[in-house]
Write a structure and sequence with these properties.
mainly beta, single chain, 4% helix, 2 helices
């Protein structure tokens, strides 16, 4: 029997992630600019209710479709064990700064790591760190998550982003079902910009870029007010395993409104 995925320590965690989604009519949302040094991305310990001020926050995603379950080491210490394809670690807090991250097959010696990288994590910032690609060329990807508060003056809003992590799938468009394209020409292993949309339920579909063919239907995508969603496209198009993995997060405003979350 497989062991349950667990972190060895709440103060020891690591990185590897990515994503895929879709949303409302084009006029209904405002698109974030690419995060810059002055852009407010929120304080992750406050938004997620973990760690301490000044920590970084990490969620690990196994998005390599032919890789076995993995263990992850942070600065030489076992931090996460037995994470299988399509699974996430959940948010954990780690000290900000530079860390060595190594990924091995579950129960293998750290000297056999298939990923061995240094990552620099900013204070108060949240990241998805994903293992992507096929095992032969597995690669870590790191994406910062915008956890800043959403506009509370108008309609209740949510924030959503799509990340293309299916290594054999072509570039895709994300559209309303039978309707307008919302995100165009998204290629592996890129993430779309974050979109702010009215909180509601949406019927969406993923299409090969420039076509009306439906590669993946996404009916009933529910986006709640004050929430942040990263939607990963995972699996393989060639063998019919293409699917999505939705990773929800909160803003500080959402935490304040739901103190028991």
């Amino acid at each position: 029997m497989r062991k349950r995925v667990r972190f060895i320590s709440a103060r020891l965690a690591l990185p590897f992630v990515l994503m895929m989604f879709a949303v409302a009519a084009p006029q209904a949302f405002a698109q974030d600019s690419t995060p810059g040094p002055e852009m407010d991305m929120g304080v992750c310990s406050e938004a997620l209710g973990i760690g301490m001020a000044g920590d970084s926050c990490i969620n690990v995603v196994h998005a390599s479709p032919d890789a076995p379950a993995v263990d992850v080491y942070l600065d030489g210490a076992l931090a996460l064990e037995d994470l299988e394809f399509g699974a996430i670690s959940g948010w954990v807090a780690v000290p900000a700064g530079e860390h060595q991250v190594q990924v091995t097959a579950a129960d293998a010696d750290v000297s056999t790591a298939v990923i061995d990288v240094n990552v620099d994590l900013a204070a108060d910032a949240a990241y998805h760190v994903a293992a992507t690609g096929l095992l032969a060329d597995i690669t870590p990807q790191v994406y910062q998550v915008n956890l800043s508060d959403l506009d509370a003056m108008g309609d209740p809003m949510a924030r959503i982003r799509v990340i293309h992590t299916s290594p054999d799938a072509p570039s895709v468009d994300i559209a309303l079902t039978g309707g307008d394209v919302l995100i165009s020409d998204l290629a592996f292993p890129n993430a779309s910009d974050a979109l702010e949309v009215p909180a509601a339920s949406y019927d969406l579909e993923v299409r090969p870029t420039g076509t009306t063919d439906v590669a993946l239907a996404l009916p009933g995508v529910v986006l709640e007010a004050g929430m942040v969603y990263d939607v990963f496209a995972i699996g393989l198009a060639g063998d019919g395993t293409l699917t999505v993995l939705v990773v929800p997060s909160t803003t500080a405003a959402a935490m304040a409104s739901t103190p028991d979350a």
